[in-house]
Give the backbone structure.
Amino acid sequence: MAVTPGFINMLSWAPDDLLKDGRSMGDIVQGVTLEVFGEGGSAGPLNADMKARYAANNDGEGPAWTTLMEFLNHLEQNGISTNVASFIGAATIRVHELKGEDRPPTPDELGRMKALVRQEMKNGAMGIGSSLIYAPGTYASTDELVELSKVAAEYDGMYISHMRSEGDRLLEALEELITISHEAGIRAQVYHLKAGGASNWHKMDQVIDRINEVRAAGMPITADMYTYIAGATGLDAHMPTWVQEGDFADWRNNLLDPDIRARVLAEMRTPGDDWENLGYAAGPEGVMVVGFRQDSLRYLIGKRLSEIAEERGTTPEDVAIDLVIADSTRVSTVYFLMSEENVKKQIALPWVSFDSDAGSMAPEGENLNNNPHPRAYGNFARLLAKYVRDEKVIPFQEAIRKLTSLPADNLRLPRRGRLQVGNYADIAIFDPDAIQDHATFEKPHQLSTGMSHVLVNGVQVLDSGQHTGAMPGRAVVRGEQ
């Protein structure tokens, strides 16, 4: 058996899952003991309008928290098996003061935004997280992000970003992240590093060279990644962000306007001058729909836009718009964008840690209604099985470092990520020859196997591969002692 520190998931979308089921089955059976939230959006801080919208989307039940740290404490009090931490969502801060408007903040609004960041940083947030291809995050200027990051830097926080482009303007987007890091005096990390779209795969070498260059000059730039050639998001990433200004109802109403629809269709068929068109980069055959709210649409799960368009006798772009309107959601979608060669190249980088960029759920009940990306069940086991044991891309010990002490150090968590006296006992015990992922894009609801025992804060949560029902997870704050 290997006895290692518990793994750190640098980007988890499990908050809603944990509110319903604190076991975190998908992650815990892979050895994950800390889930980190906050890519662009975060559970707080909330104002009255944001709370009202939350209630409207949750059968009238409003949130029991206002600040981000109150949310993490709420999870802890409800009972969770994994530890949780979070960045402050830059888009959440923006919505707090500007709603969904596409405009720069006034000086007074920016002052209030910085005050919100300061309060959350004082309470222990990890830093600022941005997501710059999605509305309303995309509306933020570099200067706005610098100003928010300056506040986070006062507390030794990090700026972490889904950059403004991961494809056609990948190199320019990286320069923006480097600029923010330099001007704000803040450590920075690239969320789920990738070069999206076959025409951009060659840029990964340039990205690696550039990050190595600035790191050699003393800039603390790092990255994280998931271990698949496809990403997952929604059909909003196939439509220009201007049509999404406001809330979802505004977006849907815009799409119902024939003139606006015609303009959107035209832009969906181009790379996008000032927005990241993932549908164009993947092509209609590379876009799989995997999640709907409406039962009547779930027969489409697992189909590509090209297939649906052929069945309906229309265009893939029209299908995308029709599905958003019919489901009244962004529609969960998988985009096949990356190359296997680049995945292996990134895994080998010493400054890259790992994330699932997914929720953490059990393969049961309502969860079976939609298909998540298989990374929700297999990201970390896949690293150890496919890329370490079978393909020997990196040594086992290096993989463990990149799953544990590297992200713990980046997050400024001195008592996690290592097995040593005085640290929190987050521990994974498993046979490296037995660890295995099973989830696929066609059949994602399959737990990984091979993890024998997992302890969180010294309490056994997994025993001989079986969940014990224990809920010892805590809200983790930056620099905790």
